[in-house]
Design a protein that fits this description.
This protein has strands at residues 8-14, 22-28, 58-63, 100-101, 112-115, 118-124, 136-142, 150-154, 166-172, 179-185, 193-199, 206-212, 224-229, 242-251, 268-269, 280-287, 291-299, 304-313, 316-323, 330-340, 346-355. The chain is 0% helix and 41% strand. It is mainly β and 357 residues long. A hairpin with a 4-residue loop joins strand 17 (291-299) and strand 18. Strands 4, 6, 7, 9, 12 and 14 form a six-stranded antiparallel sheet that branches. A five-stranded antiparallel sheet has the order 5-8-13-10-11, with no helix packed on it.
Length: 357
Amino acid sequence: WSPDAGIRVRLKVENNLVDTLICETEAVTKVANKWDTLNFSFGTPIKDTLNLNISYNKLSIFFNYGVAGSTVGVDKTYYFDDIRFGGITTMAPVMSPGSVLNFEPDTISYNFADFSGGNTTRILNTIKGSIDSSSYICKMIKKSGQVYGGSTLLLRYPINFTSYKGFKVKVYMPRVGARLVLKVENAADATKNYQQEATCKKANVWEELSFNFSGVDINKSYQRLVFQFDLGTMGDGTSNYTYYFDDISFVSSVVAVKDESLLPNEISLSQNYPNPFNPSTVISYALPFESNVNIVVYNVIGEVVKELVNETVAAGYRNVRFDGSELSSGIYFYTLKATSLDGKQSYKNVKKMIMIK
C-alpha cells in the first residue's frame, strides 16, 4: 500500500553473516492509496546475480528507493503484507532477435520507472491507425521536471545485439519534428549506455522510426530501454508534450544515421540523477561541438572533492558517474567548464547535489 503510484520499490536478499552476498531487484507501484500486488523477479536483478548455492536468510525492502523522505515535504507511510516466495504470474519483457515489444500479453509486466518529469503508462489504443491497430499502446506525458525527463523499462534478459543492429519503433507524435531518443543501458551502471535519436515527419498519425545501433559495444550488457522524447526541451504536461509508442522490434540492417542529426543545439549541464543519491549518481551534459571539458565536484566550503573530467570530449550527449562512497552526507556542487577547440565559444555552469547515507 503506497500513497503514490510510479515509485520504485527495491527488494534485497542477503546472507546475514556476509553482507556482500546479496541480490537486489525492483518493482514499480501501479496505484496510489490502494492495496496492490508487486512481483519481484530475481531472474532480472538490479544489483548482483542470484546464486542458488548461497543461503539468503535476510530480506530488506526499500520504498521510493533513491529518494530521501525529507525531500518530499511531508512524511510518507507505506504498508506491506503477505510476502510469498515462488513463481510469479507476470515477467519482465524480453528484447531479442525476432521478438517485438507490443505491450499486449497480460503475462508480461511492463513496469516503467519514470524519472525527472517523464510519465509512461500502458493504455488501451484509442488512436488506431493503418500501421497500428493493436489493443494496447504506451503513452508518455512529459511534465515539468528536467529537460531529460523520460522513462525506463527493465528487461528480463540483456539485449542480444549479435546479429541485429537496430530498432524500429512506432510512434504517434503531437507535432512534426518531435524527437525520440532510444537508449540501451546497463542496469547496474548507467554510464554503460548507447543511444540514438530519430525525428518524426508526421503529426497525430502513426509513423515508424528507425534507430541505428550498429555502433553499440556488443561486449557490454544492456538490460534497460530508456525513452526520452524531445530531449533538451522542458515538458509542460499538455497535449503538446504527450507521446505514444508501440511495437519495438529488431532490424538486421539499418540506414546510417548522420551524426549531425543527433547533436544537441547548445552546451548544457543537467541535474544529476538520482538526487539525493547514495552512494553514486550520474551527471549528464551535452556538447554541440568537440570541446575541452572540465567537470569538478566541490564541497560546501569550495574544496575540490574530485575531478571527474579533464579532457577533450567529442560532440554529443555525455554521462559521467560520480561515486560518493567515501564521502559524508551533505551538500556538494559540481561545475562544468567547456570551451570549443577554436576557443571562440565557452560555457560554465554549476549545480547542487545532495549525498544522503
